[in-house]
């Protein structure tokens, strides 16, 4: 504020309050603004009054003109002259209709009668052969007449299109239908030179220019042609499925629809003809409006009569649209996203406009002249290159919009009903439920059926081959090549990769099964994909990727049932000289010398690899996971993994190992190494939500290959270990990381976080088996520590469970006393045995008797004679639940109890003498079994099914049906594989369904009840995440300890001596010499005698707790007895709780051998003491 002046003078007198200069200026400014606002308010009021007066006067004049026009029309019933129509009919008519209806975009009922009379008069005039009475003759008259005629015609076209847009069939009366029909007929006549009756050779040029000017007017957007047609088509009936026959329209409605579509296509026809009219005409503008407003209409093709659809499919219409969608891609996609679908009846809120554009283009581009999508070919000369590129752009944009709203999740959750981004159907009661949305999505996916047919992919591959063959002979102009280019395998891969994602999102139940079926059975396609991937992943190519997939595709088409000849395989697998040399060194023979073997009976020989070559299986381009690969490579990899994982489900062992289709064993190894490297690094380094589908498909494919290798090894063991060979953490660290991840497994994005725990959970095979066993033991150690901290475990023996078991009823006694304990069975148990004579056996249980109890109860319960389990027909006689166990008293509960027994053995580190079938273990590990695993369960049935699969004749000759016969307690039961299966014969068409139904029943359904029960008991003590560290064979090894023999040298190295014995004692030296001379079975009996288990510890005897001990039992034999040849008579005894062998001081080897064999064969321990 300024300093006050020394001498202030007030002009208002001494009584007025003093005011500062700044305050005065502010006050003056406010008063000026108030005066300015008052002037503007006054001007606005005057303007509003003027507009209102103008509207009122105009309306009054329009009503007066309408009344005069009606009187005039009533007095002139006949046909008037063209001049009279122009001046006395159209001029007032257009004025009052524009004022009263057109400007308000709503037609008054009082105007409809006037419109009907006017349109009838104009149609009668246009059809007149008298040039004086033909209204269109004015278009060829003087300049002023032509100008007025053009102006009035454009006004008439705009009015007719408004009538079309306002048409609503749901509430339209007879008059509405008649007026709309007349309006469409009028516009069609005005814009069709052939409909004019007054054309002569002299006036044809002027008439042609006039018509083209009207068509240009419709095409450039001033008439809102495509907006009006869109609004009209959206009111037509919608068949709920694309397979439903189209609605039959009445004659008038059909005429309206046909006229509307004729007008929609008329600008395209003028583009394709010689344009000589005034003014520019942009072809892309017309195609842009057509694509944005018509191709995005839901069920466009299904709403229209079939006779009209063929016109939309014509190349002169479809090709400009495809080209425009490529050239103006970004602008068109933005315009499509801004379309308001809120007033479209039956529009599902899960499909945005770009999705309907995609579906409609597929429907228009495929299908023959009869509108049949099964015709199996594109139309002659169709631009498939632009077609594929357009589908890629639209599908990519569709998925981006769906993903942007978080609609894709790990479990493919259903779309939430409150998403309102795309549309809100009017009939909320019809479109509001999840079930309805699901039906809409299924109906939408019907549009993609042509893409899911083999002819579609085959034609595209043929174009790729053709373009490759003529490469260089013809080139596109530079400006066109920028947008269109040529068709490559990568383009096809992008297309089907997006199609897979769309199916997965919209149909989570079935997923992309229809697409995968087609891709898997298309000859050469999978081989082409791998050839393209191989050229990118493995350096040193001698051929281009085009050479690979083109030659493979050409060869595969000539092979029966899509099977490649080995000669072709061998000729295409030589991609890198370095790799060929390495593989030859691994195998020790040439590639052409690998012959198939009968892999149903024996395993294939895997490639042998030295540890020095382990780096060759760690693929360098994939060492950074999904984040380190390009978009193109990610697309190829996703499509390959999804397709090949599907094929692996139906590929039997004969095809995989013997025929080696679609890949040789060497190629399978390279595929496994690429996936193994990619998945490991993706999990270790982390991956984002956008690459989740890629990782999921890669993990699935990797698991299927690894499980097949576990059954019939074809990969070197070092291949699976290679990615983590240099970066594996310590066992304790890995175990704790895994437990933390398992505890947080409920988090949605847990798998996207870089974590060694996710590696252990998903790909435990990158850790050696020995390390995983140590990890398993670490989990149990951590669990025991947790239980101890929680007070569940106190001092030894304080909370132990005491049971009394009769040796003759060990299963029944154990079940009765332990079955109800559940997870409490983790606590120690103290066992007291009662001999078969009914006498309590001597000895205190410090762990040894409980181990013996678990071993004996498993031996009795798992015996086939007991009825709960049976043995497979394979040579190894593995255990599997008996189908008749359900009829045994408490059979299911007994199997659940045996699961707890096995869990207790694993928890305590006790080895059992039995191994389970691969199929049964798969169920315990939470995995589904497929056809190729049937050979491990029933080789004979597997061979029979393969005979049916490869049967050359008519399968009906075998007289099979969809049933299976089972025997139970001497009775045979017929089980239907599907409802009504006994009445369904097996044919060549459904034999694959029959084969997989049989396999599914034998491998999954038949044992599901028993495996679930066993799993419940097992997981009471062992966490499921711990079990998933191992495959089926490793689980058996974890349970039973591997080979049925022991390593004497390892046992000797880890044996303790007490009581006076040492390694140099005479009796000890004799003992080890005797042990080496034992049969393997006798050595196992010795181990069972001392430790109560016949199997060696899994990681060697250094892990046996307590250590194997030989205790000296001093036996003083008189000198005269020794001289006379007498030796110690006492038998060896054992303390199984301390793993101690009490060995007397025998002098002679024969005596020691005799006494030791007698002791270990007597099935007694303490009683020999």
Automatic annotation (TrEMBL):
Domain HECT stretches: 825-1169
Keyword Transferase included in the entry's annotation: yes
Gene3D superfamilies: Hect, E3 ligase catalytic domain, Hect, E3 ligase catalytic domains
Pathway in which this enzyme or protein is active: Protein modification; protein ubiquitination
Catalysed conversion reaction: S-ubiquitinyl-[E2 ubiquitin-conjugating enzyme]-L-cysteine + [acceptor protein]-L-lysine = [E2 ubiquitin-conjugating enzyme]-L-cysteine + N(6)-ubiquitinyl-[acceptor protein]-L-lysine
Cited InterPro entries: E3A/B/C-like, HECT_dom, Hect_E3_ubiquitin_ligase
EC number(s) from the headed UniProt entry: 2.3.2.26
UniProt entry keywords in alphabetical sequence: Transferase, Ubl conjugation pathway
Biological process, per Gene Ontology: protein polyubiquitination; ubiquitin-dependent protein catabolic process
Top-level taxon of origin: Eukaryota
Pfam families named among the record's database cross-references: HECT
Its biological purpose: Probable E3 ubiquitin-protein ligase which mediates ubiquitination and subsequent proteasomal degradation of target proteins.
Annotated family: Belongs to the UPL family.
Protein name per Swiss-Prot or TrEMBL: HECT-type E3 ubiquitin transferase
Organism lineage string: Eukaryota, Viridiplantae, Streptophyta, Embryophyta, Tracheophyta
């Amino acid at each position: 504020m300024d300093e006050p002046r020394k001498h202030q003078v007030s002009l208002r007198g001494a009584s007025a309050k003093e005011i500062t200069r700044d305050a005065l200026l502010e006050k003056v400014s406010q008063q000026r603004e108030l005066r300015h606002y008052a002037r503007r308010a006054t001007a606005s009021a005057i303007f509003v009054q003027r507009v209102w007066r103008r509207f009122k006067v105009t309306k009054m004049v329009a009503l007066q003109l309408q009344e005069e026009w009606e009187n005039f029309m009533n007095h002139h019933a006949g046909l008037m002259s063209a001049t009279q129509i122009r001046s006395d009919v159209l001029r007032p008519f257009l004025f009052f209709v524009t004022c009263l209806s057109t400007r308000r975009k709503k037609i008054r009922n009082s105007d409809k009668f006037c419109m009907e009379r006017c349109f009838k008069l104009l149609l009668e005039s246009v059809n007149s052969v008298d040039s004086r009475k033909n209204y269109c003759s004015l278009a060829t008259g003087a300049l002023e007449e032509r100008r007025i005629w053009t102006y009035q015609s454009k006004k008439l076209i705009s009015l007719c299109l408004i009538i079309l847009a306002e048409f609503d069939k749901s509430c339209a009366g007879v008059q509405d239908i008649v007026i709309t029909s007349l309006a469409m007929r009028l516009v069609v006549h005005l814009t069709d030179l052939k409909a004019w009756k007054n054309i002569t050779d002299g006036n044809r040029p002027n008439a042609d220019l006039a018509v083209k000017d009207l068509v240009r007017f419709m095409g450039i957007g001033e008439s809102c042609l495509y907006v009006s047609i869109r609004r009209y088509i959206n009111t037509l009936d919608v068949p709920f499925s694309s397979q439903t026959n189209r609605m039959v329209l009445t004659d008038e409605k059909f005429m309206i629809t046909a006229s509307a579509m004729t007008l929609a296509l008329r600008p395209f026809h003028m583009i394709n003809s010689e344009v000589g009219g005034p003014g520019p005409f942009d072809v892309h503008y017309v195609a842009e409006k057509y694509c944005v407003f018509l191709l995005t209409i839901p069920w466009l093709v299904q709403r229209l009569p079939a006779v009209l659809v063929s016109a939309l499919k014509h190349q002169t219409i479809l090709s400009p649209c495809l080209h425009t969608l490529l050239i103006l891609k970004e602008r068109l996609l933005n315009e499509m996203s801004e379309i308001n679908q809120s007033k479209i009846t039956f529009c599902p809120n899960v499909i945005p406009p770009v999705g309907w554009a995609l579906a409609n283009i597929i429907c228009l581009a495929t299908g023959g002249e009869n509108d049949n999508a099964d015709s199996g070919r594109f139309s002659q000369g169709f631009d498939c290159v632009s077609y594929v590129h357009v589908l890629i752009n639209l599908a990519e944009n569709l998925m981006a919009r769906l993903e942007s709203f978080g609609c894709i999740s790990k479990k493919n959750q259903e779309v939430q009903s409150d998403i309102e981004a795309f549309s809100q159907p009017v009939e909320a009661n019809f479109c509001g439920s999840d079930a309805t949305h699901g039906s809409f999505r299924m109906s939408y996916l019907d549009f993609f059926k042509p893409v899911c047919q083999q002819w579609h992919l085959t034609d595209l591959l043929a174009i790729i081959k053709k373009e490759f063959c003529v490469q260089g002979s013809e080139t596109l102009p530079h400006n066109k090549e920028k947008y269109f280019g040529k068709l490559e395998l990568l383009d096809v891969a992008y297309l089907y990769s997006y199609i897979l994602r769309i199916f997965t999102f919209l149909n989570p139940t079935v997923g992309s099964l229809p697409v995968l079926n087609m891709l898997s059975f298309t000859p050469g396609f999978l081989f082409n994909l791998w050839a393209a991937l191989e050229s990118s992943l493995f350096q040193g190519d001698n051929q281009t990727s085009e050479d690979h997939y083109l030659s493979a595709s050409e060869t595969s088409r000539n092979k029966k049932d899509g099977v490649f000849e080995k000669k072709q395989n061998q000729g295409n697998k030589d991609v890198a000289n370095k790799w060929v040399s390495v593989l030859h060194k691994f195998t020790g023979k040439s590639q052409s010398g690998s012959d198939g073997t009968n892999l149903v009976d024996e395993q294939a020989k895997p490639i042998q690899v030295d540890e020095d070559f382990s780096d060759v299986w760690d693929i360098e381009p994939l060492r950074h996971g999904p984040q380190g690969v390009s978009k193109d490579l990610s697309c190829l990899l996703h499509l390959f993994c999804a397709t090949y994982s599907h094929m692996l489900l139906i590929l039997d062992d004969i095809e995989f190992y013997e025929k080696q289709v679609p890949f040789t064993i060497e190629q399978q190894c390279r595929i496994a190494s690429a996936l193994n490297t990619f998945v490991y690094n993706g999990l270790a380094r982390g991956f984002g939500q956008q690459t989740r589908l890629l990782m999921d498909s890669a993990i699935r494919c990797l698991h299927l290959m690894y499980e097949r290798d576990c059954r019939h090894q074809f990969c070197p063991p070092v291949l699976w270990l290679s990615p983590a060979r240099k970066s594996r953490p310590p066992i304790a660290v890995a175990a704790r990381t895994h437990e933390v991840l398992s505890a947080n497994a409920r988090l949605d994005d847990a798998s996207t976080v870089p974590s060694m725990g996710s590696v252990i959970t998903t790909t435990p095979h990158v850790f050696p088996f020995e390390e995983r066993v140590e990890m398993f033991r670490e989990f149990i150690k951590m669990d025991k520590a947790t239980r101890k901290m929680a007070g569940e475990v106190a001092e030894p023996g304080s909370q132990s469970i005491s049971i009394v078991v009769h040796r003759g009823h060990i299963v029944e006694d154990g079940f009765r006393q332990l079955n109800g304990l559940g997870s409490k069975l983790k606590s120690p148990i103290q066992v007291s045995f009662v001999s078969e004579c009914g006498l309590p056996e001597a000895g205190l249980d410090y762990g040894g008797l409980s181990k013996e109890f678990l071993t004996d109860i498993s031996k009795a319960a798992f015996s086939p004679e007991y009825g709960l389990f049976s043995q497979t027909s394979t040579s190894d006689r593995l255990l599997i639940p008996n189908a008749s166990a359900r009829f045994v008293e408490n059979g299911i509960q007994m199997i659940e109890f045996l699961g707890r027994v096995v869990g207790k053995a694993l928890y305590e580190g006790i080895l059992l003498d039995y191994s389970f079938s691969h199929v049964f273990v798969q169920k315990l590990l939470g995995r589904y079994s497929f056809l190729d695993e049937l050979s491990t369960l029933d080789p004979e049935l597997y061979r029979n099914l393969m005979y049916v699969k490869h049967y050359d004749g008519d399968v009906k000759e075998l007289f099979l049906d969809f049933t299976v016969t089972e025997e139970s307690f001497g009775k045979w039961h017929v089980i239907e594989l599907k409802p009504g299966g006994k009445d369904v014969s097996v044919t060549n068409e459904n034999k694959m369904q029959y084969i997989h139904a049989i396999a599914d029943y034998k491998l999954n359904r038949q044992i599901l009840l028993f495996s679930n029960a066993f799993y419940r008991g097992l997981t009471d003590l062992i966490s499921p995440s711990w079990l998933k560290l191992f495959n089926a064979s490793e689980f058996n090894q974890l349970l039973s300890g591997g080979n049925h023999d022991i390593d004497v040298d390892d046992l000797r190295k880890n044996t303790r001596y007490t009581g006076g014995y040492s390694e140099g004692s005479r009796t000890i030296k004799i003992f080890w010499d005797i042990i080496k001379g034992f049969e393997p079975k006798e050595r196992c009996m010795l181990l069972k005698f001392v430790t109560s288990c016949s199997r060696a510890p899994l990681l060697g005897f250094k892990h046996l707790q307590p250590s194997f001990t030989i205790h000296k039992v001093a036996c003083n034999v008189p000198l005269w007895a020794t001289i006379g040849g007498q030796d110690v008579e006492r038998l060896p005894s054992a303390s199984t709780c301390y793993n101690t062998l009490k060995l007397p001081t025998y002098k002679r080897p024969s005596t020691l051998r005799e006494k030791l064999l007698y002791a270990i064969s007597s099935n007694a321990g303490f009683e020999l003491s």
